[in-house]
Amino acid sequence: MSLQLDLAGKTALITGAGRGIGREIAKKLSQMGANVVINDIAASTDADLTAEEINAQGGNAICLKGDVRNFEEIEKIIENTIDKFGRIDILVNNAGITKDGLMMRMSEADWDDVLDINLKGAFLMTKAVSRPMMKQRSGTIINVASIVGVMGNPGQANYVASKAGLIGLTKTTAKELSSRGITCNAVAPGFIRSAMTDKLSDAVKEEYFKAIPLGRFGETEDVANVIAFLASDLAKYITGQVVHIDGGLVM
């Protein structure tokens, strides 16, 4: 049987898809033929703009706002997705925030906020989609981690812990759900140009740049391309893996 990089007829839900990497992922999966559900927190209008752009280009996207920290809101998102498209085939746990600071000065609130959105949010979304995916005996879950979850990073104890935890969650999810035909993988982006990295100082950017063997920073499309592959049938025999998208920064 010939497999293709084609998502026609499938439905993908991407969290934190209003901007940055999440927005690029939503656009890429739509270009591959998927119905796209764009999730972002309730106060954001970015998700609406992303959906409008996709639909203007001939795609099929809807925006379902909701907080990934709230399981009741998540269940409503899943219910509305299935009501609209009949099924859910792909979940991309991309929602994430940073609240950086040295560990000795980091507040408990900043620790909790980052872990709640980046890690607990992914757990709750995965928990919610597992039932319909198990029922249809197919599905793909992709978690957006980070290379700092592998290598650590000063001043980001909360963010690093959340991304390292996401890698562990990926492997456990893969082992628990594989018997039902569900795969789960993670991507670990390195230095990707985005609003998040734009906040870094020139000195920090230069330090990263010197350490990247390919000699350039990554683009959001670099991440979206790998996720598109992992979401397709071409990757149906890959599960429990962490794919680094970092230009060789971590080898």
Write the layout of secondary structure elements.
Elements: E1 11-15, H1 20-31, E2 35-39, H2 46-56, E3 61-63, H3 71-85, E4 90-93, H4 108-136, E5 139-144, H5 148-151, H6 157-177, E6 182-189, H7 195-198, H8 202-211, H9 220-231, E7 242-245
Parallel strand pairs: 1-2, 1-4, 2-3, 4-5, 5-6, 6-7
Fold and architecture overview:
The protein is an alpha/beta fold and 251 residues long. Helices cover 47% and strands 14% of the residues. It has a 7-stranded parallel sheet with strand order 3-2-1-4-5-6-7, with helices on both faces. β2 (35-39), α2 and β3 form a beta-alpha-beta unit. α1 (20-31) packs across α9 (220-231), α3 runs parallel beside α4 (108-136) and α4 (108-136) runs parallel beside α6. The two termini are 34 Å apart.
Helical content (DSSP H or I, runs of 4+): 40-55%
- CA radius of gyration is 17 Å
User: What amount of the residues lies in strands?
Assistant: 5-15%
Strand order of the largest sheet: 3-2-1-4-5-6-7
Q: How are helices and strands ordered from N to C? A: EHEHEHEHEHHEHHHE
Number of separate strands: 7
Number of helices: 9
Q: Give the oligomeric state.
A: single chain
What's the gist of this structure?
With 251 residues, the chain is an alpha/beta fold. Helices cover 47% and strands 14% of the residues. Helix 1 packs across helix 9 and helix 4 packs parallel to helix 6.
